[in-house]
Specification:
The structure holds two protein chains of two kinds.
Chain A lengths: L1 H42 L10 H52 L13 E8 L7 E8 L2 E9 L3 H18 L6 H13 L8 E9 L4 E7 L5 E3 L3 E3 L19 E4 L5 E5 L1 H4 L10 H8 L6 H16 L8 E8 L7 E7 L5 H14 L4 H21 L8 E9 L2 E8 L27 H8 L2 E7 L2 E9 L1
Chain B lengths: L1 E7 L2 E10 L1 H16 L4 E12 L1 H17 L2 E5 L3 H9 L2 H4 L1 E2 L1
Parallel strand pairs in B: 2-3, 3-4, 4-5
Antiparallel strand pairs in B: 1-2
Helix pairs in contact in B: 1-2
The chains are: A alpha+beta, B alpha/beta.
Amino acid sequence: MGQKEDNLYQKAKRALKARLSMIIIIVVAFILEGGGLLQYYYFRRESSSPLAGPIFLGLLVLGLIMIVILMIRATKNMKQLGEVTATKERMESELAVARNIQMAMIPKIFPPFPERSDLDMHAGLVPAKEVGGDLYDFYIRDEKLLFCIGDVSGKGIPASLLMAVTRALFRTLSGHEDSPAKIVAAMNDSLSEGNEYNYFVTFFLGVLDLGSGRLRYCNAGHNAPVMLTDRISPLKVEPNLPIGIMPRISFKEQEFQLRHDDAIFLYTDGITEAENLAHQLFGEERMLSVLHTRRSADEQVKNILNAVSAFVGDAPQSDDKTLLFIHYMGDGAMEQRHIVLHNDVRQIPQLAHFVEAIADEKKLDQSLTMSLNLALEEAVTNVILYAYPEGADGLVDVEAILAPGKLTFIISDSGKAFDPTSASVPDLTASLDERPIGGLGIHLVRQLMDSVDYERRDGKNILTMIKNI
Amino acid sequence: MEVNITKENGVVTAALIGRLDTPAAVEVAPRFDALNADASETIILDCKDLEYISSSGLRLFLTLRKTASDRGGKVIVRSINHDIRTVFMMTGFLNLFVVE
């Protein structure tokens, strides 16, 4: 917004100066004129004095005319000053509205997902001027957290326009695509098109699978986020170009496995490059020293912002400051076990060994071990017997996720679509004659596990069973 | 999985030893066919050494129970361990069998 505002300011300053000098001139003129008039009346009695002559009177009249002209001009200047002030006020109020609109684009209700126990998040955005070019955004779809942080080159109104476009592109292009590199490449193509002013955006985009803790990310020229695991260190990032520079370039995608209680901290250089009056930078080292592995997201963000404010003191803020903290408290891939069986009931003892090995490792008691064995056997037998056509070879995949206090078993097969959870509950009070021989397997699974969910995905039957331990 | 069948004074006792899982149920199905043939008598299923049972095993039990009911016999389930008792409870089998 700089130049336009400067012009207005200069104009207003000039108008004010003109007004002051005008007032001084008018006052002086009034004094002189008054003195002249008094003298005229005083010397009129002695008609020989030149101060009583018609020339002197003429000069006085001329003086009066000049005063009137000066007054008219002063009024005009004052009107101009009023106009300038009004324009400035209008622009300021428009900027305030623009700021509200911009702030409304980013999520800022925290905690953002109070219903989720696996995620603790907080963020902050402090523009240097009314509006800024930094952004962050996030949302959850399909049990994945999609998040981003970005910094548009430049500041103020032009940057804020591009920030709005970037945020809209992120939302639109990430709606049906899980690959961060593909989303970033598509955003880059859109932004690069018609970018005549050569603005660009440093951008980081992550897709965190909340179930497994697997983080896929793509960094387009942004500062490397900080990982808080059992230690605090920057995330390894590829030096991709920022987005908006040129279309049709490819971006490298990377992965990181988050564990329960790990966190990721993203920020813009407004944090590390915050300057104090002595022109020293806040810097990465100070920032890292404020981060702590065991603190809530809310505290981490507040601590960083407070530390920056304390460091900067009275120095004016020169750049937008943005930070985003994601504390993952899901199961992550704590430990995983995996077994693939053929669709043959003779494979059941192998499944039992698989379950017992997990039970040994987790030091589960005999009853719990039997429950797990039984539930797994019933669910897998169901697949072995019914998923594939008779005589056809097929596979059953069993994955176990061992988290503290919770075991998850995911049984999948490529057989015909069948939802075992849709089976009706047997009538346990029926008389002997009315009791059918079968139909107990899935009933037992339901009884033994804490949750059983079926899903048909990518041509597969996926049965997820959870047992709290 | 073993099923040892003994007959004494018109009482048939089948000692079940080991794990009665799905493949075991397939394996011992002929032994249960033999028991079904004696279903007019009193049959004791001795589960002292039965470690485990899944729904395939429960099917064998239930089939035997139904046959016995048709032929006027009796099925007594003896000495089931705590975990198997839980399975019997979950499936309503405690109401269908005499469990000692």
